[in-house]
Amino acid sequence: MKTVDRLGNKSSIGLLPTTWKVLRAKVLYQERKELSETGEEELLSASHLTGITKRSEKNVGMFLAETLEGYKKVHPDDAVVNTMWAWMGALGVSQEYGVISPSYGIYRPIGDSKDPRFYDYVFRSAPFVAEVNRRSKGVWSSRLRLYPNDFLTMRLPYPSLSEQRSIADFLDYEVARIDQLIEKKNLFISLTAQRIDALVDEVFSNSSVPRIRFENVVRRVQRPVVLSEHDELIRLGLFNRGRGIFKKPAADEEGMGDSSFHFVRDGDLILSGQFAWEGAVALATEDEDGCVVSHRYPVFKGRDGINTAYLLGLLRSGFGDFLLNESSRGSAGRNRPLNTWRLGKEKIPIPSRELQETVDRALAFERQLKKKTEHSLSLLTEARAALITAAVTGQINATAWGKQGQTDRRLDEIEEAMQA
User: Fold this and answer.
1) Which of 119, 152, 318, 338 has the fewest C-beta atoms lying within 10 Å of its C-beta?
2) How many other CB atoms are there within 10 angstroms of residue 198's CB atom?
3) Chain segment 141-151, per-residue pLDDT in tens
4) Per residue in 389-403, pLDDT tens?
């Protein structure tokens, strides 16, 4: 794309073309304080990934409030800011009418000389989120808040309405293409997961396969950590819905908190004691060998003749989800700790070693596919962020994108690398 040579106007997202205006947000937006009287409107939510969307369209595990009465009303084209998580990019411009938590900031547009799509991209661009982070107030990052006055005093780009529309059209097209490539890769992984589920379903539906109590096919593994003997340790956490393991920042004894910890080895089956009912279960690999988990994560190994990877496939299946939910009881909300004694009494199907190994190979293929995909997804995510930033700061000539097609060729190169 053609680079705009004359940059000079300073805004909250960096230097802009000298032909663009820079206005305070309060010139373009005004706080809206309209509350729902009935609570019957559609509930909305904000995400750094998807912007402002209907909560019903998202896979969210949080429990709903008893009533939405008193929630803030949101109108189409309103800017919506999650006061507590704006520093993480949880903000944007809504296309929907609905309500949202009273802790959000809602800002209605003043006048009609702006394209809401353009400002949605501005608000969710990397430099804007970085500026939001800088302006948010709080002692710790998890306690940062972006208050209305701090949002309304931010300096926003204001190109002509025709330029706003050209930039929005350009980004709508190109970002959609990037998102399609990302979805394509994620679909491959999803199909592999379905293959694993099908193998487990085949086992479960075969009445001739013996059922044995979970406690009789596994052994609990505990490798206590003496914190004083280590300078730093890497703690592990689990994503929900069988999406694997993530690593937390390395910490010394002081930063490890009051929990007791245990070492993890390659091939360990790890369950989350707090969120097993949401499918937080995973198998450790070489990458996690030597890391640690707190006492809230029970760790198991399959006994002789039992493939530990098969147990993971089983617990990730619909049947496994039922078992983990039945074994997780709590009084209210998300407080549903896993009762390992109850889980131990549940009977599970144990097929032939050959079929167990088939599940193991399918899981290994899934891990390899995920690892191979990570690089291409990273390239696409970076390209998406860079493209948005370049467009909303006027670094590329979006008005000529249909003729030049340079961005298309760049995405073609990424797509070719993905297929290699």
Assistant:
1) 318
2) 11
3) 667 899 999 99
4) 999 999 888 877 655
